[in-house]
Design brief:
Blueprint lengths: L12 H34 L2 H15 L1 H9 L3 H31 L7 H29 L2 H28 L5 H25 L1
Helix pairs in contact: 1-2, 1-3, 1-5, 2-4, 2-5, 2-6, 2-7, 3-4, 4-6, 4-7, 5-6, 6-7
Length: about 200
């Protein structure tokens, strides 16, 4: 029991901010890893390079939780800025890998199978990224974190990119298999655009 007049000291603002940031990062990581895991299973069944592009990007996005989470644990806004830079670098690398895979598929075409599963994987990518964008944007605005806000805008754009996978399944189903690498390249362009937008946010 507490004695008369006992009161708890208010928790340090930096500690509260750190907890809020880490909570958002961990929640985002879990959602994206589940999303990427489901997409990975479908990719191995289907061979869709458009799905692979989205999968690579979602894995890279999930891994950005590491530098952002460390920045919050350090209670350092400077570290957050560097974490934002790391997020941009991860987006860029995922885009370049996705582009390479799409171009390779033009050179060495492979059939795409299990089209309903491919479409479902695209829908999962959309839902997962929209969920993550809400988590990051709400937390980022609440604690005024440019790194989280940039990551949230990134996830919101990723949700639209994931719908390209649904389009791939639909177009391949009507007899145009070349749509798979073409949409893979379009997804790559979308990722590179997101890279530029995220860079503009974190460097401000």
């Amino acid at each position: 029991m507490h004695g008369p007049g006992h009161s708890h000291a208010p928790m340090d603002e930096d500690v509260l901010r750190s907890r809020e940031g880490v909570r958002a990062v961990v929640q985002s990581l879990v959602v994206l890893l589940i999303t990427a895991g489901a997409q990975g299973a479908v990719f191995f069944w289907s061979g869709s390079v458009a799905l692979l592009a989205d999968l690579i990007h979602n894995v890279g996005d999930a891994l950005t939780a590491v530098p952002v989470g460390v920045a919050f644990l350090l209670h350092s806004k400077r570290a957050e800025k560097w974490a934002g830079m790391a997020v941009v670098a991860a987006i860029l690398v995922s885009g370049l890998i996705a582009g390479y895979e799409a171009i390779s598929r033009f050179i060495s075409p492979e059939p795409v199978t299990h089209l309903p599963a491919v479409a479902l994987a695209g829908v999962l990518g959309y839902v997962g990224n929209r969920w993550v964008s809400l988590i990051r944007l709400r937390a980022g605005e609440k604690i005024n974190s440019p790194a989280l806000i940039a990551d949230g805008e990134h996830a919101r754009a990723d949700a639209i990119v994931s719908l390209g996978v649904v389009a791939t399944a639909a177009v391949v189903a009507v007899g145009l298999p070349v749509a798979d690498p073409i949409i893979g390249l379009l997804i790559t362009v979308g990722i590179l655009r997101i890279t530029w937008q995220s860079w503009a946010l974190v460097r401000a």
